[in-house]
Design a protein that fits this description.
By secondary structure, the chain is α+β, with helices and mostly antiparallel strands. The protein is about 35% helix and about 25% strand.
Protein backbone atom coordinates (compact mmCIF):
# COMPACT_ATOMS: atom_id res chain seq x y z
CA UNK A 1 0.00 0.00 0.00
CA UNK A 2 1.47 3.33 -1.02
CA UNK A 3 -0.13 5.13 1.90
CA UNK A 4 1.20 2.60 4.47
CA UNK A 5 -1.94 2.96 6.61
CA UNK A 6 -2.65 -0.24 8.58
CA UNK A 7 -5.75 -2.07 7.35
CA UNK A 8 -7.53 -4.89 9.18
CA UNK A 9 -9.19 -8.08 7.98
CA UNK A 10 -12.69 -6.62 8.47
CA UNK A 11 -11.93 -3.80 6.01
CA UNK A 12 -11.49 -1.05 8.61
CA UNK A 13 -8.33 1.06 8.79
CA UNK A 14 -6.24 2.48 11.63
CA UNK A 15 -6.76 6.12 10.66
CA UNK A 16 -8.98 9.00 11.72
CA UNK A 17 -9.28 12.49 10.27
CA UNK A 18 -11.18 15.52 11.55
CA UNK A 19 -13.74 16.98 9.12
CA UNK A 20 -11.99 16.07 5.84
CA UNK A 21 -11.00 12.78 4.28
CA UNK A 22 -7.44 11.91 3.27
CA UNK A 23 -6.42 11.24 -0.30
CA UNK A 24 -6.19 7.50 0.40
CA UNK A 25 -9.89 7.42 1.36
CA UNK A 26 -9.32 5.14 4.35
CA UNK A 27 -10.41 5.27 7.97
CA UNK A 28 -12.99 7.42 9.75
CA UNK A 29 -13.80 11.08 9.11
CA UNK A 30 -15.30 12.91 12.10
CA UNK A 31 -17.72 15.82 11.93
CA UNK A 32 -15.63 18.02 14.21
CA UNK A 33 -12.43 18.34 16.21
CA UNK A 34 -11.33 15.46 18.42
CA UNK A 35 -9.87 14.96 21.86
CA UNK A 36 -6.77 12.78 22.20
CA UNK A 37 -8.90 9.97 23.62
CA UNK A 38 -11.35 10.14 20.69
CA UNK A 39 -8.52 10.14 18.16
CA UNK A 40 -6.85 7.17 19.84
CA UNK A 41 -10.04 5.11 20.07
CA UNK A 42 -11.26 5.85 16.54
CA UNK A 43 -7.87 5.07 14.99
CA UNK A 44 -7.60 1.81 17.00
CA UNK A 45 -4.48 2.98 18.83
CA UNK A 46 -5.69 2.27 22.37
CA UNK A 47 -4.82 -0.71 24.54
CA UNK A 48 -1.88 -2.02 22.56
CA UNK A 49 0.24 -2.63 25.70
CA UNK A 50 3.50 -2.63 23.75
CA UNK A 51 5.92 -4.84 25.66
CA UNK A 52 9.15 -6.80 25.29
CA UNK A 53 9.41 -10.59 25.20
CA UNK A 54 12.54 -12.72 25.38
CA UNK A 55 13.87 -14.27 22.20
CA UNK A 56 15.27 -17.69 21.43
CA UNK A 57 16.67 -19.32 18.30
CA UNK A 58 16.24 -22.89 17.11
CA UNK A 59 19.31 -24.86 16.06
CA UNK A 60 18.71 -28.06 14.07
CA UNK A 61 21.68 -30.43 14.12
CA UNK A 62 22.20 -34.15 13.43
CA UNK A 63 21.94 -34.65 17.17
CA UNK A 64 18.50 -33.01 17.33
CA UNK A 65 16.73 -29.69 17.87
CA UNK A 66 18.14 -27.28 20.41
CA UNK A 67 16.69 -23.97 21.67
CA UNK A 68 19.22 -21.14 22.19
CA UNK A 69 18.44 -18.04 24.21
CA UNK A 70 19.14 -14.62 22.64
CA UNK A 71 20.07 -12.48 25.66
CA UNK A 72 20.90 -9.24 23.84
CA UNK A 73 17.65 -8.74 21.94
CA UNK A 74 13.90 -8.76 22.58
CA UNK A 75 10.75 -9.00 20.50
CA UNK A 76 8.65 -5.85 20.68
CA UNK A 77 5.01 -6.99 20.64
CA UNK A 78 1.52 -5.53 20.99
CA UNK A 79 -1.98 -6.76 21.72
CA UNK A 80 -3.69 -6.54 18.34
CA UNK A 81 -6.52 -3.95 18.53
CA UNK A 82 -8.96 -6.16 16.64
CA UNK A 83 -8.11 -9.76 17.45
CA UNK A 84 -6.64 -9.37 20.92
CA UNK A 85 -3.77 -11.69 19.98
CA UNK A 86 -0.10 -10.96 20.64
CA UNK A 87 1.64 -9.67 17.50
CA UNK A 88 5.34 -9.04 16.88
CA UNK A 89 6.29 -5.52 15.78
CA UNK A 90 10.09 -5.78 15.66
CA UNK A 91 13.32 -6.89 17.30
CA UNK A 92 15.03 -4.40 19.62
CA UNK A 93 18.10 -4.18 21.83
CA UNK A 94 18.40 -4.32 25.60
CA UNK A 95 18.31 -0.52 26.02
CA UNK A 96 14.97 -0.13 24.21
CA UNK A 97 11.95 0.86 26.31
CA UNK A 98 8.49 1.22 24.72
CA UNK A 99 6.64 4.53 24.68
CA UNK A 100 2.97 3.59 24.77
CA UNK A 101 0.45 5.18 22.40
CA UNK A 102 -1.36 6.49 25.48
CA UNK A 103 1.83 8.30 26.60
CA UNK A 104 2.17 9.66 23.08
CA UNK A 105 -1.35 11.11 23.26
CA UNK A 106 -0.89 12.35 26.84
CA UNK A 107 2.14 14.36 25.73
CA UNK A 108 0.16 16.02 22.96
CA UNK A 109 -2.73 16.64 25.34
CA UNK A 110 -0.40 18.73 27.48
CA UNK A 111 0.47 20.83 24.45
CA UNK A 112 -3.19 21.11 23.49
CA UNK A 113 -4.07 22.44 26.95
CA UNK A 114 -1.43 25.14 26.58
CA UNK A 115 -2.01 26.12 22.97
CA UNK A 116 -5.69 25.63 22.23
CA UNK A 117 -4.71 23.24 19.43
CA UNK A 118 -7.04 20.38 18.54
CA UNK A 119 -6.44 16.89 17.18
CA UNK A 120 -6.65 16.51 13.41
CA UNK A 121 -5.35 13.07 12.43
CA UNK A 122 -4.11 9.85 14.00
CA UNK A 123 -3.07 6.57 12.51
CA UNK A 124 -0.98 3.45 12.46
CA UNK A 125 1.53 2.63 9.73
CA UNK A 126 3.29 -0.53 8.60
CA UNK A 127 1.21 -2.96 10.60
CA UNK A 128 1.59 -1.03 13.85
CA UNK A 129 5.33 -0.49 13.67
CA UNK A 130 4.87 3.30 13.44
CA UNK A 131 2.11 5.60 14.68
CA UNK A 132 1.34 9.31 14.40
CA UNK A 133 -0.94 11.92 15.92
CA UNK A 134 -1.27 15.52 14.76
CA UNK A 135 -2.85 18.68 16.12
CA UNK A 136 -3.75 21.84 14.27
CA UNK A 137 -2.62 25.08 15.88
CA UNK A 138 -5.50 27.53 16.48
CA UNK A 139 -4.08 30.32 14.33
CA UNK A 140 -2.71 30.01 10.81
CA UNK A 141 -0.99 32.50 8.56
CA UNK A 142 -2.00 34.39 5.45
CA UNK A 143 1.18 35.44 3.72
CA UNK A 144 1.19 38.43 1.44
CA UNK A 145 -2.59 38.57 1.75
CA UNK A 146 -2.94 35.58 -0.56
CA UNK A 147 -1.20 32.38 0.56
CA UNK A 148 -2.95 30.63 3.46
CA UNK A 149 -0.72 28.41 5.58
CA UNK A 150 -1.85 26.38 8.58
CA UNK A 151 0.56 24.99 11.15
CA UNK A 152 0.44 21.61 12.86
CA UNK A 153 2.23 19.80 15.65
CA UNK A 154 2.87 16.20 14.62
CA UNK A 155 4.24 13.47 16.87
CA UNK A 156 5.63 10.21 15.49
CA UNK A 157 6.57 7.06 17.36
CA UNK A 158 7.90 3.66 16.37
CA UNK A 159 7.46 0.37 18.17
CA UNK A 160 10.11 -1.54 16.21
CA UNK A 161 13.17 0.51 17.17
CA UNK A 162 13.44 2.14 13.74
CA UNK A 163 12.99 5.74 14.94
CA UNK A 164 12.89 7.79 18.11
CA UNK A 165 9.75 9.43 19.49
CA UNK A 166 9.79 12.60 17.37
CA UNK A 167 7.77 15.81 17.46
CA UNK A 168 7.80 18.33 14.63
CA UNK A 169 6.13 21.62 13.80
CA UNK A 170 5.00 21.40 10.21
CA UNK A 171 2.88 23.31 7.68
CA UNK A 172 1.59 20.00 6.29
CA UNK A 173 -1.45 18.06 7.53
CA UNK A 174 -0.26 14.50 8.09
CA UNK A 175 -2.66 12.02 6.48
CA UNK A 176 -0.32 9.12 5.84
CA UNK A 177 3.46 8.99 5.91
CA UNK A 178 4.20 12.45 4.63
CA UNK A 179 5.37 15.59 6.43
CA UNK A 180 7.91 18.34 6.06
CA UNK A 181 9.48 21.02 8.19
CA UNK A 182 11.68 24.07 7.89
CA UNK A 183 14.65 24.82 10.13
CA UNK A 184 14.34 28.29 11.64
CA UNK A 185 17.44 29.71 13.30
CA UNK A 186 17.02 30.09 17.04
CA UNK A 187 13.77 28.12 17.32
CA UNK A 188 12.99 24.47 17.90
CA UNK A 189 10.97 22.82 15.13
CA UNK A 190 11.78 19.20 15.96
CA UNK A 191 12.57 17.21 19.10
CA UNK A 192 13.51 13.54 19.30
CA UNK A 193 13.43 11.22 22.31
CA UNK A 194 15.22 7.85 22.26
CA UNK A 195 13.42 4.76 23.53
CA UNK A 196 15.55 4.28 26.63
CA UNK A 197 14.81 3.97 30.34
CA UNK A 198 14.72 7.77 30.69
CA UNK A 199 12.33 8.31 27.80
CA UNK A 200 9.44 9.51 29.99
CA UNK A 201 11.64 12.13 31.62
CA UNK A 202 12.89 13.27 28.23
CA UNK A 203 9.30 13.62 26.98
CA UNK A 204 8.80 16.05 29.85
CA UNK A 205 11.93 17.86 28.69
CA UNK A 206 10.53 17.92 25.17
CA UNK A 207 7.41 19.65 26.44
CA UNK A 208 9.59 22.34 27.99
CA UNK A 209 11.68 22.67 24.83
CA UNK A 210 8.55 22.91 22.74
CA UNK A 211 7.61 26.01 24.66
CA UNK A 212 9.70 27.46 21.85
CA UNK A 213 7.05 26.28 19.38
CA UNK A 214 5.37 29.63 19.60
CA UNK A 215 8.69 31.36 18.92
CA UNK A 216 9.13 29.03 15.97
CA UNK A 217 5.75 29.87 14.48
CA UNK A 218 6.45 33.59 14.79
CA UNK A 219 9.85 33.25 13.14
CA UNK A 220 8.44 30.96 10.45
CA UNK A 221 5.76 33.51 9.59
CA UNK A 222 8.29 36.34 9.48
CA UNK A 223 10.66 34.33 7.27
CA UNK A 224 7.87 33.19 4.95
CA UNK A 225 6.58 36.76 4.65
CA UNK A 226 10.03 37.98 3.60
CA UNK A 227 10.25 35.18 1.06
CA UNK A 228 6.84 35.90 -0.46
CA UNK A 229 7.83 39.55 -0.88
CA UNK A 230 11.12 38.69 -2.61
CA UNK A 231 11.22 37.80 -6.30
CA UNK A 232 12.98 34.73 -7.60
CA UNK A 233 13.94 33.95 -11.18
CA UNK A 234 14.29 30.55 -12.79
CA UNK A 235 18.04 31.16 -12.99
CA UNK A 236 18.22 31.78 -9.25
CA UNK A 237 16.17 28.67 -8.56
CA UNK A 238 18.47 26.63 -10.80
CA UNK A 239 21.45 27.79 -8.73
CA UNK A 240 19.70 26.56 -5.57
CA UNK A 241 18.87 23.22 -7.19
CA UNK A 242 22.49 22.69 -8.24
CA UNK A 243 23.65 23.41 -4.69
CA UNK A 244 21.10 21.05 -3.17
CA UNK A 245 22.01 18.17 -5.45
CA UNK A 246 25.63 19.21 -6.15
CA UNK A 247 24.88 19.77 -9.83
CA UNK A 248 25.25 17.13 -12.55
CA UNK A 249 28.20 14.81 -11.98
CA UNK A 250 28.70 14.47 -15.69
CA UNK A 251 27.55 16.13 -18.91
CA UNK A 252 26.35 12.79 -20.29
CA UNK A 253 24.76 9.50 -19.31
CA UNK A 254 22.48 8.77 -16.36
CA UNK A 255 23.74 11.68 -14.22
CA UNK A 256 22.88 14.21 -16.90
CA UNK A 257 19.48 12.59 -17.53
CA UNK A 258 18.63 12.58 -13.82
CA UNK A 259 19.69 16.21 -13.47
CA UNK A 260 17.61 17.30 -16.46
CA UNK A 261 14.53 15.39 -15.27
CA UNK A 262 14.83 16.85 -11.78
CA UNK A 263 15.19 20.38 -13.07
CA UNK A 264 12.33 19.90 -15.52
CA UNK A 265 9.98 18.86 -12.73
CA UNK A 266 11.06 21.57 -10.28
CA UNK A 267 10.94 24.34 -12.88
CA UNK A 268 7.45 23.19 -13.91
CA UNK A 269 6.27 23.28 -10.29
CA UNK A 270 7.73 26.76 -9.89
CA UNK A 271 6.46 28.23 -13.15
CA UNK A 272 3.23 26.41 -13.96
CA UNK A 273 1.84 24.28 -11.13
CA UNK A 274 -1.49 25.31 -9.61
CA UNK A 275 0.02 24.89 -6.14
CA UNK A 276 2.18 27.99 -6.75
CA UNK A 277 -0.47 30.06 -8.55
CA UNK A 278 -0.92 32.64 -5.78
CA UNK A 279 2.79 33.01 -5.04
CA UNK A 280 4.30 32.66 -8.52
CA UNK A 281 7.75 34.15 -9.04
CA UNK A 282 8.66 34.51 -5.36
CA UNK A 283 11.27 32.85 -3.17
CA UNK A 284 8.40 31.34 -1.19
CA UNK A 285 7.24 29.67 -4.41
CA UNK A 286 10.79 28.44 -4.96
CA UNK A 287 10.91 26.84 -1.53
CA UNK A 288 7.48 25.27 -2.00
CA UNK A 289 8.45 23.90 -5.41
CA UNK A 290 11.53 22.26 -3.87
CA UNK A 291 9.60 20.69 -0.99
CA UNK A 292 6.78 19.55 -3.28
CA UNK A 293 9.33 17.89 -5.54
CA UNK A 294 11.10 16.18 -2.63
CA UNK A 295 7.83 14.96 -1.12
CA UNK A 296 5.99 13.82 -4.22
CA UNK A 297 8.21 13.59 -7.30
CA UNK A 298 11.81 12.75 -6.34
CA UNK A 299 12.88 9.26 -7.49
CA UNK A 300 12.62 6.50 -4.90
CA UNK A 301 13.34 2.80 -4.74
CA UNK A 302 10.77 0.23 -5.82
CA UNK A 303 9.60 -1.49 -8.97
CA UNK A 304 5.96 -0.42 -9.04
CA UNK A 305 4.44 3.04 -8.66
CA UNK A 306 2.95 2.06 -5.29
CA UNK A 307 6.29 0.73 -4.00
CA UNK A 308 8.02 3.95 -5.02
CA UNK A 309 5.37 6.10 -3.34
CA UNK A 310 5.62 4.03 -0.16
CA UNK A 311 9.42 4.39 -0.10
CA UNK A 312 9.13 8.15 -0.60
CA UNK A 313 6.67 8.42 2.27
CA UNK A 314 8.88 6.31 4.52
CA UNK A 315 11.97 8.48 4.05
CA UNK A 316 9.97 11.56 5.02
CA UNK A 317 8.24 10.21 8.11
CA UNK A 318 11.49 8.76 9.47
CA UNK A 319 13.19 12.13 9.14
CA UNK A 320 15.75 11.14 6.51
CA UNK A 321 14.49 13.99 4.31
CA UNK A 322 14.95 16.60 7.03
CA UNK A 323 18.45 17.61 5.95
CA UNK A 324 17.25 18.38 2.41
CA UNK A 325 14.30 20.40 3.74
CA UNK A 326 16.59 22.40 5.99
CA UNK A 327 19.05 23.15 3.20
CA UNK A 328 16.25 24.11 0.82
CA UNK A 329 14.91 26.60 3.34
CA UNK A 330 18.36 28.00 4.10
CA UNK A 331 19.10 28.53 0.40
CA UNK A 332 15.78 30.23 -0.41
CA UNK A 333 15.14 32.33 2.70
CA UNK A 334 16.09 36.02 2.84
Amino acid sequence: MAHEIEQFADGSAAFVSARQSAWHGLGTVTTGAMTAEEAMATAYLSGWDVRLLGLSATDITPEGVRSIEVPSHYASVRTHPKTGTTETLGVVGTDYHPVQNEEHAEFLNLLADESGAHFETAGSLKGGRQVFLTMKLPTGMTLGGRDRTDLYIAAFNSHDGSTAFRVVVTPVRVVCANTQRAAIKGAVSSYAVRHTAGAKARIAQARQALGLVWEYTEQFEQAAQRMIEAEMTLSELRTVVDKLWDGPKSDKGRAKTNSEQRWGQISHLFSQADTQAEIRGTRWAGYNALTEYANHFAPSRGRTAEEKTAARAERIITGSADALMERAFALTTV
